[in-house]
UniProtKB/TrEMBL annotation:
It comes from the Eukaryota. Belongs to the class-I aminoacyl-tRNA synthetase family. One of its GO terms (cellular component) is mitochondrion. NCBIfam families: metG. This is Probable methionine--tRNA ligase, mitochondrial. GO terms for molecular function: ATP binding; methionine-tRNA ligase activity. It comes from Helicocarpus griseus UAMH5409. It is an enzyme of class 6 (ligase). Its EC number is 6.1.1.10. CDD domains: Anticodon_Ia_Met, MetRS_core. InterPro entries: Anticodon_Met, Met-tRNA_synth, Met-tRNA_synth_2, Methionyl/Leucyl_tRNA_Synth, MetRS_core, Rossmann-like_a/b/a_fold, tRNAsynth_Ia_anticodon-bd. It catalyses: tRNA(Met) + L-methionine + ATP = L-methionyl-tRNA(Met) + AMP + diphosphate. PANTHER family: METHIONINE--TRNA LIGASE, MITOCHONDRIAL, METHIONYL-TRNA SYNTHETASE. GO terms for biological process: methionyl-tRNA aminoacylation.
């Protein structure tokens, strides 16, 4: 107790010294500051190492329009990363998603509908909550930037930047895009003619979105002061941004043109935002407000305790918002000596008819329709396996149907049915023979397949550690495809005529290897397709106990007890088929 009081006293003295040297800190603010505990300096956060809960985030979504498949993609990627950690079972994992509700974009959208911004936000944030639940995104919290804890966190964050001398006022002139909620320098815009209307306008070169000239007095953050520290940080952490090729553009941009950042807007232009502390004539820039959401959920501004989840392990972001996450965000955090996020996983965009799928272009796919049409796990599978990483991907229903028919129904579903529904053999008996060590000496094909299965889980794990769920899912599918070839080449159905079924034989090897492939593949598939993987494991009769379905069980020979389906494969909702025939194929 005494120690806590002494620490508080020292902190108060330190703050008093700090604030007396900084005359711009107003007195109410000094008082609040003295009462608030501080987060420790960067690199000294008390909870580090592997046991800190794994913390993954999605971007928070603008609520000015309904969600589309691009948003679902970002959510599913983050969900797969979280579920992978749960599968590993080494530590707790947290996933944060939510909505970004302030800014001119929302103010204008509400005005166009004759609504109050808060009412629009209340209504539309629900559509993103619905998407998270429809897409089976296992989030631990849904944050809204209009939440009062978040507003407090942002104001405190601002105070801190101010107290450390990183904020100043100045006239700001530049091109502002409402759609991107970003200022652009003259070098980043160009005049264009809008194809649809023939209207001449100025647009951002990077995003193609219209910009407007603005000239106003506002607050600035000394971003340029962080150039060297940012570059040093990138050099020391070459894996900070994944895939790596995105790093080149970011480093170039920091080394060539890192200007101070305007971080507020006058209320004459923008009312819908968090007021700047002690200056009601300005509101805080929506991106500064939004980025702090990741800290709000981690408990900021309260100091980390044993359960702290900060720093984030991964921020999943689209390439259009990479600059905000990999330049502005680290610089803000450096300014406050807070630990930086460990990694940023960027992805490219889904396109429709060769244009970025976006609500402003109006070429979006409604994710709920897509889920109804193709099934949730088929959509999750398609988004991950064909999703854009470094280059954009085209969205097409025909691609989804092809994936379904070829990989899911044609290989995974078919192989499971052939193994588990055949009347010619008893899978459980072969498993018993194998686990009792009664398998006979065998031919190289069986031994090779066993070795292949022994190597694959670690490969998938390494790919997930590299934040490459697409490659990891391809590897899981390689297990299934390779086993399908193995099963076909070994033709166990032909052996049933020749072998003595009462004695262990080659047939048991084939059936055991195939069952192990499906069991290991099914366990590894869970983060990607949670429902179908559960069904697959039920068809194989794998116990629902956590340890029987966790990564440590995805090892050849790790489960002695499965082989009797835990559901009726002949009747019931699924009719024994993992991927039933499609009713509509176009
Ligand atoms: N509100 C900001 C993010 C703030 S995070 C502190 C924002 N919102 S957004 O709703 O416009 O976009 C959210 C995410 O969806 C971004 O990562 C963006 O890249 C992603 N996508 C938007 N359209 C997309 C596609 N067409 N394809 C893939 N992802 C897409 O930006």
């Amino acid at each position: 107790m005494l120690e806590i009081e002494l620490r508080a006293l020292t902190r108060a003295r330190r703050l008093a010294r700090l604030t007396s040297r900084r005359p711009w800190i107003c007195s109410p603010c000094r008082n609040t500051l003295a009462r608030r505990p501080q987060w420790r300096a960067m690199g000294t956060a008390p909870v580090v190492g592997d046991k800190k809960p794994f913390y993954v985030t999605t971007p928070i979504f603008y609520v000015n329009a309904a969600p589309h498949v691009g948003h679902m993609y970002t959510m599913v990627l983050a969900d797969v990363l979280k579920r992978w950690q749960v599968l590993l079972g080494n530590r707790d994992a947290k996933l944060l998603t939510g909505t970004d509700e302030h800014g001119l974009k929302i103010q204008q959208a509400a005005a166009a509908l004759g609504m109050k911004p808060q009412d629009l936000c209340n209504e539309n944030c629900q559509t993103f909550r619905n998407l998270a639940s429809a897409a089976n995104v296992d989030h631990d919290h849904f944050i809204r930037t209009t939440d009062s804890e978040h507003k407090d966190a942002v104001r405190y964050f601002w105070d801190m930047l101010n107290h450390r001398g990183y904020i100043y006022t100045s006239k700001h002139e530049g091109w502002y895009s409402v759609s991107d909620e970003a200022f652009y320098p003259i070098s980043a815009v160009q005049p264009i003619v809008e194809p649809q209307t023939g209207r001449k306008l100025v647009a951002s070169i990077e995003t193609g979105k219209e910009v407007q000239w603005t000239s106003e007095e506002n607050y600035h953050f000394r971003l340029s002061a962080f150039k060297d520290r940012l570059l040093e940080f990138y050099r020391n952490n070459p894996d900070f941004i994944t895939p790596r090729n995105y790093m080149t553009g970011i480093m170039r941009s920091v080394s060539t043109k890192l200007e101070d950042l305007s971080i507020s807007r006058p209320t004459s232009r923008l009312k819908w935002g968090i007021p700047v502390p002690y200056d009601n004539s300005q509101v805080i820039y929506v991106w500064l407000d939004a980025l702090v959401n990741y800290l709000t959920y981690a408990g900021y501004p309260f100091p980390p305790n044993a359960k702290s989840i900060w720093p984030a392990d991964v921020h999943v972001v689209g390439k259009d918002i990479l600059r905000f996450h990999s330049i502005y965000w680290p610089a803000f955090l450096m300014a406050l000596d807070l630990p930086l996020p460990r990694r940023i996983m960027a992805h490219a965009h889904w396109k429709m008819n060769h244009e970025k799928m976006s609500k402003s272009t109006n070429n979006v796919v409604n994710p709920h329709f897509a889920i109804d049409r193709h099934g949730l796990d088929t959509m999750r599978f398609f988004l991950i396996i064909d999703g854009p990483q470094t280059t954009d991907s085209n969205y097409d229903n025909a691609f989804i149907v092809e994936r379904y028919k070829k990989d899911l129904q044609g290989i995974l579903g078919n192989l499971t049915s052939r193994l588990m529904r055949s009347k010619r053999w008893n899978v459980r008996e072969s498993i018993t023979i194998a686990v009792e060590g009664r398998l006979p000496e065998t031919i190289s094909e069986n031994l090779r397949h066993k070795e292949f299965l022994e190597s694959m889980p670690d490969r998938v794990k390494a790919e997930m550690e590299q934040l490459d769920p697409r490659r990891a899912l391809n590897s899981v599918m390689e297990i299934i495809k390779e086993t399908n070839r193995f099963f076909h080449n070994m033709s166990p159905w032909a052996l049933t005529h020749h072998v003595d079924l009462s004695r262990p034989s080659e047939l048991d090897w084939i059936l055991y290897n195939t069952a192990e492939s499906l069991r290991i593949g099914g366990i590894l598939l869970q983060p990607f397709m949670p429902q179908k993987a559960a069904l697959l494991l039920n068809m194989l009769g794998v116990s629902e106990e956590v340890e029987k379905r966790s990564f440590s069980a995805a090892r050849y020979g790790a489960d002695a007890d499965y082989g009797v389906p835990s559901l009726d494969l002949k009747r019931g909702k699924f009719n024994g088929t993992l991927f039933p025939p499609l009713l509509c194929e176009d």
